[in-house]
Amino acid sequence: MNCVKPSNPSELTVPVGGLDVRVLVPAGQEDSVDRITFWWGVTSAAVVLSRHLERMGSLAGESVVELGCGLGLAGITAGLLGATVTFTDYVADALKHARRNSEINGLNRGRTSFSVLDWEHPGKREQFSLVLGSEVVYDYFSHGALVKLLEVLMRPGGRILLADRKRLCVSRFLGRMIDKGFACRETTARVLLEGFPDHEVSIFALTRGAV
């Protein structure tokens, strides 16, 4: 995966348009024994998604959920833009770091929440006006569960924003969403930030019905 993963704990300041988002990055971690995960890194896709959100302007009044939040960069950006944000991840340690990063960026605790989420067994969940995910569709085996989860999480009239490189696994996932009645609009951007690989990243905006 294309992410910054330092060997020692450090703090990154990520320029996100007019925002500077502080992210505490832990020292190198070991992969989860039962799931593919890389939650402790800041990915190029998360940076591109965050900058896309900043260009959208104020998110006041929006209810946002970030899937596979890791260190929480995109969710924090949404919160700084005025949204109420729920950070979710399968890994509890990721949520601890996302909470800490949320706090150092001054987000109001009353507008943030943190929840362990197993896509295959999500339980009863509220619905959101905006669903975010960066590099969350790399595992073919998770696609079926994720399609169902997105249908449950998205409020009527809501939007889904997924950031990833345009790879075969991503194209197949998007095909499944389109088969479910979603429309997809794609935009692309590059990070061009020191320490990050120079890859083109796509933002896939998914909505119900015609674009």
Brief rundown of the structure:
With 211 residues, the chain is of the alpha/beta class. It contains five helices and eleven strands, in the order ββββαβαβαββαβαββ.
Mind explaining what this structure looks like?
This protein has helices at about 45-55, 75-80, 90-105, 145-155, 170-180; strands at about 5, 10-15, 20-25, 40-45, 65, 85-90, 110-115, 130-135, 155-165, 180-190, 200-210. With about 210 residues, it is α/β, with parallel strands linked by helices. The protein has one domain (about 5-210): Vaccinia Virus protein VP39 (Rossmann fold). It has a seven-stranded mixed sheet, sandwiched between helices.
Largest sheet: 7 strands, mixed
Low-confidence spans? none
| Number of separate strands | 11
Question: Which structural class should the secondary elements be placed in?
Answer: alpha/beta
CATH architecture level-2 label: 3-Layer(aba) Sandwich
Name the shape in a single word.
Answer: globular
Helix percent reads 25-40%
Number of helices: 5
* CATH homologous group name: Vaccinia Virus protein VP39
Overall number of structural domains: 1
CATH structural class: Alpha Beta
Strand content: 25-35%
Task: Give the averaged pLDDT, no decimals.
Answer: 90
Query: How large, in whole angstroms, is the Cα Rg?
Result: 16 Å
Sketch the topology as an H/E string, one letter per element.
Answer: EEEEHEHEHEEHEHEE
Termini separation: 30 Å
* CATH fold type: Rossmann fold
Strand order of the largest sheet: 7-6-5-8-9-11-10
Q: Top keywords for this entry?
A:
211 residues; alpha/beta; Rossmann fold; 7-stranded mixed sheet; two-stranded antiparallel sheet; 5 helices; 27% helix
